[in-house]
Amino acid sequence: MKIHHYTTIETLALILKYRTIRFNRLDKVDDLEESKYGISTADLRMGKYNFASCWTRDANESIPLWNLYTKNKGVRISLEEDMFITYPINNSFKSFFKENINPKEDYLIYNGINEAILIDVEYVDDLKMKITEIGSCIENNVQGRYKMEFTNDFGKFKSKHWEFQKESRFIIRVIPIKWPEMPPPKDIDPTYFYLNEFMESIPPSYFQNKSVSVDYFDINLNTIAYNNMEILLAPETNETEKIIVDSLVNKYCPSAKVKESKLKGKIKSK
Fold first, then answer.
1. In whole angstroms, what is the distance from residue 37 CA to residue 135 CA?
2. Which pick of 42, 169, 224, 252 has the fewest CB atoms within 10 Å?
């Protein structure tokens, strides 16, 4: 089944050239409300640790989405839902990442929480309450210990005023960490030392709403999905823009199908 993404011709060019889809941080996307609220009374702001690629299952053209994301001058790309190069973790779980734990400057990527599945957004009346209820996070200020229990549901909910989007998402999640200030002692295995330090740093990093240095991830498309891409031109696409799209397709993905919008000549932006 194909799913659909409204975007600009400039973004289409990058997708075609590099064969990747970009996942953007949720605290930097159009719905600012998603990152306004935190989990539990600890107010854990998770937007900076979650990255999304946003699509819709609705095959019908959406005038609001054309206008919001393309100003009626871009494209809608359609790809198979199983579009990414993925890595099996077990018989039923495929991840975006091959490595189990991949330490970066200030975050970990754990493939066990990064399942490559499309999640349908649930639209709710009270987004703040829904996000607050995702988990329980308690800090013991006396002992300096933390108790954290929350699900992987952050990024699944939006306010009902966004319901027109009929959105589904792929989500990548990172875990904030802090590198130790001192190198490992000579009598301790470095791998064990760093892993232990990273694990110990995770709860306080969440509670301190520690930022991370990554703003996006570009994930590779698999060959079958890429070659079967469909590209729908926006309703107000002009001849010059159509030539640009045709040129990009001929150069990078000749098997892609380019079609005209059924709304062409029926709407006009103000």
1. 13
2. 224
Q: What is the DSSP letter of 251?
A: H
User: Measured between alpha carbons, how far is 66 from 252 in angstroms, rounded to an integer?
Assistant: 24
Q: What whole-number distance in Å separates Cα of residue 189 and Cα of residue 134? A: 37
Render pLDDT for 100-119 as a digit per residue (tens, 0 to 9): 666 667 998 999 899 999 99
pTM attached to this predicted model: 0.92
Q: Which is more confidently placed, 29 or 236?
A: 236
Q: Which residues of 4-26 are buried (b: 16+ CB within 10 A; e: fewer)?
A: bbbbebebbbbbbeebbbbbebb
CA distance linking residue 152 with residue 133, whole number of Å: 12
The CA distance from 257 to 261, in Å, is 13
For every residue of 91-131, DSSP letters joined together read TTEEES-SSSB---SSEE-BGGG-B---EE-EEES-HHHHH
Question: Please, what is the end-to-end C-alpha distance for the chain in angstroms?
Answer: 35
Q: How many CA atoms lie within 13 A of 69 on its CB side?
A: 27
- Convert 215-239 to b/e letters by CB count within 10 Å (16 or more is b): eebebebeeebbebbebbbbbbbee
CA distance 221 to 207: 35
**pLDDT per residue as tens digits for the range 119-149:** 999 999 999 999 999 888 877 665 567 788 8
* DSSP line for 121-169: -EEES-HHHHHHTTEEEEEETTTTEEEEEE-S-TTSEEEGGGGGG-EEE
